Amino acid sequence: MNKRLNRLQRLIVDAAAEKKAFDILILDLRKRSDFTDYFIICSGNSKTQVQAIVDSILDKSYGAHYKPVALEGYAGGSWAIVDLVDVVVHVFQKDVRNHYDLERLWGDVPVIKAAGR
Predict the structure, then answer these.
(1) What pLDDT shows up at residue 3?
(2) Is-contact 56 17, C-beta < 8 A?
(3) Pairing assessment for the beta strands 111-115 and 22-28 based on DSSP bridges
(4) Integer Cα distance of 19 and 61 in angstroms
(5) Fewer beta carbons below 10 Å: N end or C end of the chain?
(6) How far apart are CA 79 and CA 113, in angstroms?
(7) Does residue 92 form part of some domain?
(8) Is the confidence at residue 104, as pLDDT, over 50?
(9) Cross-strand partners of 93
(10) The pLDDT value given to residue 117
(11) Who has greater pLDDT, 19 or 107?
(12) What is the pLDDT of residues 19-44, one digit of tens each?
């Protein structure tokens, strides 16, 4: 993994953990996807927490000169997506994450448990 990407992953994980995100996973999609290299998936307990996690990721990303190319689902607060090109972040409310189960959908890719904070 190159240093720039590792730095971006760490920034995202730390920003999410600061807002008490839980079950933070990194899915390595490099051998399976043309649109991104990694998914980072995490959960929050409420709309407000999902939005706070996304705000933290955006603040830290902009501060480190990473600019998202897309942000989806923020207003609804049940599943928000931050597209940072090499890394796509999915921030879910727990029940919505269980329903869509991206980990199962991408079950054949390497998974890194990023934080149990």
Answers:
(1) 60
(2) no
(3) antiparallel
(4) 15
(5) N
(6) 20
(7) yes
(8) yes
(9) 44
(10) 42
(11) 19
(12) 999 999 999 998 888 889 999 999 99
Domain contains 117? no
Burial of 106 (0-12, 13-18, 19+ CB in 10 A): middle
Q: What is the rounded distance in angstroms from the CA atom of residue 60 to the CA atom of residue 36?
A: 20
CA distances from 36 to 17, 40, 83, 88, 117 (A): 22, 11, 9, 7, 26
State the alpha helices, DSSP H only, in 1-117. 3-18, 47-63, 94-100, 102-105
Q: pLDDT by residue (tens digit) across 50-99?
A: 999 999 999 999 999 999 999 999 999 999 999 999 999 999 999 999 99
CB of 37 within 8 A of CB of 60? no
94: containing domain: 3-112
pTM: 0.90
Instruction: Please enumerate in sequence order all residues whose Cβ is within 8 A of that of 59, keeping only pairs 6 or more positions apart, or say none.
Output: 15
SS3 40: strand
The number of CA neighbours under 13 Å toward the Cβ of 72 is: 9
Entry field: residues in the chain: 117
Number of domains in the chain: 1
Asked if residue 52 is part of any domain, the answer here is: yes
